[in-house]
Amino acid sequence: MSSRFRLCALIFASIAAPAVGFAQPAPSAEVRMNELGSENARLAQRIGTYDVVLTSWSAPGAEPTTIRAVAERTTVGSILQEVITFPPGPPGSDFRRIDYLSFNRVEGRWKYVSMDARFPVGIMWATSFGRGQDGRFTVVFEPFALAGPGAGVTGQMVSMDQAVIELDADHDAKEQRFMLADGTGVMWLANRYAYTRRR
Question: Which residues are bridge partners to 103 per DSSP?
């Protein structure tokens, strides 16, 4: 083999060989943490229209009341948006409840916010202490005030948590527990939302 032929073969090999040391840079932490991840990928599977049965207990040991409603779930990026529409109330009332739920992969916990136009409670937000397990996790709310049942505003503070429970592909539930700032230290199941996906 002539030296000229060997030189041509070497040049061709160097051109054809994959470049070494020119790998694509790894995606930034911001990009990676904005991906769905396993938790938010599960949330994305919950989109759709649901029939909702809300069972409420106004106080420990009280007789329950039941309301039927409809929930629409969509996603906004990695966030699950839920809008529940309840049966109409007094004229001019807005009987919707909107919430947003997502797993924050940077903080390693669930974050949740809700707005319930049925009551003067404002915007309520909550976080978990971890991922949860077995299709269940609990978020804890910042304490908030209730107006009170009478004509005067009492502004009684309430502590609240909410368990989010995946039952199967078409059924899940939210269970809200309340504890009033009344000195009793009693926490009770105040609301249970039972969801059934429409097919």
Answer: 110
